[in-house]
């Protein structure tokens, strides 16, 4: 119920939060934007000038190109894999009996509550030279040398899929919950085979969930730090680890700020264009 | 020759018996209602006919063929679900054309037939709308068109009118019945609304707790219910408990009624049923004396709650335009002898 | 309920195995009796759990994380609940902007938040301080508390409150005795989710914490980049167990899938 009063109550209720955010979020964000527009000298530090040199460097330098391409490629690959395995899993979960469903929801979504460091550590142990992967492949006989997926693109992909697929499952699961199960019965009664029902009736209704899940996985992969840092290491840099380098190793804060700003803009562009797309494509169909 | 037959259909979920020994023969073109309170097994029965739920035992025969084991997508029946179950991502036309598409009918023809079907349910101008942009009544018609366009041998309706408001419901009952008679499709309707069943059906199957209480045409069912459950569920009735004292007398409350009781044992307990509209009320001091406790005006009729030596009774009288009785008035009731039905034992 | 095909169940089995495998890996390694990374094939040992006690740094980091999460979650709820009441129930100028602003951290990559705060705090002299860290975490988790509070308040009909008013209760009494108890599950869920998010957070904290204010995930991260040993595995196992317990509580209290539709 809404009260359309001209009272000041809502301002008092939201005021403290807004002020807190304005000072402690708004200001830092603006400052970072400004910082990215300064230049940096290795000897004298941050200069008090205005320049877009940092952006030119980030967007123009082939070193950064490689990093962006790798990050983008990683995000795309992880997203595709998450769709391929996450959508069926969400569907299966929705078809389980109540007791099993609660248990497996806990199992599949629970890891989201565990710090990403712990989950990534598991993969590091698995992938490492003296790790389980080596033991298994040597036991099965198809490798003589220790097998390591550490510091490889493949290893990063697998670990990131593990970290992010629960988000895909949640998004698709939420969409599946809204589907009227009788619409699938109706499809059957009209002569559709089980797979036709899945393809023509269930999947189209789950599409908004699949898209929002993809969006989230893509955005989170693109800005991921811990997993690429641990599994990818020094040689496989992504946007987040590159920014980390600039900030905490090279101390070229303006450059780091420029990278961060570009990442932020990319994030916002993706989210906004997704919303526009969804609105146009699905608004006529879904409430 | 029966067109649709169920033989001893049973459905048990773990320990719970949802449908018990249901047998029925439906003629071609007949309109049958499965009527009963929630949980009586009517929807379960419908789902078994549709093939969405396998029976625990029993057979279903359609036009001589045993379809008990046939999967739902091969039975070719037309079903209107309670929630309508339209496909939200398709327009009305595409929804209706879906069944034709599954039968391999090519695009132009099926869109043409879908449009015709929508015209038949008076939704021609909504052909390109999506379910989200339609009212409940409109969605219901799309669901109906979708079920009818495939020219099914049997039409199944699962409480199709329960989500509509009262006025629309009444209109749809008439339309639905007329449509069914025009097309001549064998129809099974599931409902808990006895007025709906009475107004639309050729025969009504009254169900209770998984079993059949009575199968009869509407008038027969209303006038000659076989037990107190049916007489109270279909229409309203007064149920009075009494004791038989002789071949022609029953004591109810403080009064004695003359009625032929020769079929029943002495001293046994009976239940009398008499419908409110069968009682006549007058001021001419002859008959059974009662005191009016409440008078409710219903427009076309009056409903009175009266008390007398037999206990509390409800009486309906038509509205003659003159003032009715008021609380505290004394009046006299009379009734024709065949207006009372006696029941012994449980319903 | 449609039955699932055997193929589907097998796929499901592999999926679940995939999800659990790394965690099992961590737990297994933490029980090794050897002095180096290995699987406990010869027998289980608690030596690496005892070793945690010899590492005060980890324990210190654990307390930092716990206090940080406690304070952040509480502050987030204090900001979020009044804001949710305002946003859900009043139509006022700027409502959508304020709502978007308070939810904006969800759209900002943690990396970006981290570098922004790092720069800001150094400028105002709070660089590497605990207060700065707290403020950063409050900003980070408030959106989660707000989303859950909003969904709680939005679903609430005001009839019960109107009834209380007509029976003579003051506005404050109505809030404390009627409104608050009704939105409590959502608020509690929001608090717990905020706590967990803050406790687990790594990327932003890497930039904002200093050696003396290292949170547990940050300390673990730095440890891993130097060396991967059974010690870090045993610390991780402790975390897994604690999280599992919290998860059970959260599910009982609120229903895990409902919480996550807020996190997702």
List the helices and strands and how they pair.
The complex is a heterotrimer of chains A (287), B (347) and C (264).
Chain A: H1 9-35, E1 40-41, E2 45-46, H2 53-60, H3 62-95, H4 98-109, H5 116-127, H6 132-139, H7 153-177, H8 181-189, H9 194-222, H10 226-232, H11 239-250, H12 253-282
Antiparallel strand pairs in A: 1-2
Chain B: E1 4-13, E2 16-26, E3 31-35, H1 42-50, E4 57-62, E5 65-66, E6 78-80, H2 92-102, H3 107-120, H4 136-148, E7 154-158, H5 166-183, E8 186-191, H6 194-200, E9 203-208, E10 211-216, H7 218-223, H8 228-233, E11 238-246, E12 249-252, E13 255-258, E14 269-274, E15 280-282, E16 288-297, E17 301-308, E18 311-318, E19 330-334, E20 341-344
Parallel strand pairs in B: 3-8, 3-9, 6-7, 7-8
Antiparallel strand pairs in B: 1-2, 1-4, 4-5, 9-10, 11-12, 11-14, 12-13, 14-20, 15-19, 16-17, 16-19, 17-18
Chain C: H1 6-30, H2 47-53, H3 56-89, H4 95-103, H5 110-123, H6 130-154, H7 159-166, H8 171-200, H9 203-208, H10 216-226, H11 230-253, H12 256-263
Structural overview:
The complex is a heterotrimer of chains A (287), B (347) and C (264). With 287 residues, chain A is mainly alpha-helical. Chain A has a domain at 28-107 and 165-230 and 239-282: MetI-like (MetI-like fold). Chain A has helices at 9-35, 53-60, 62-95, 98-109, 116-127, 132-139, 153-177, 181-189, 194-222, 226-232, 239-250, 253-282; strands spanning 40-41, 45-46. Chain B is α+β, with helices and mostly antiparallel strands. Chain B has two domains: 4-232, 3-Layer(aba) Sandwich (Rossmann fold), CATH 3.40.50.300; 236-344, Beta Barrel (OB fold (Dihydrolipoamide Acetyltransferase, E2P)). Helix content of chain B is 24%, strand content 35%. Chain B has eight helices and 20 strands. By secondary structure, chain C is mainly alpha-helical. Helix content of chain C is 76%, strand content 0%. Chain C is built from twelve helices and no strands. Chain C has helices at residues 6-30, 47-53, 56-89, 95-103, 110-123, 130-154, 159-166, 171-200, 203-208, 216-226, 230-253, 256-263. Chains in contact: A-B, A-C.
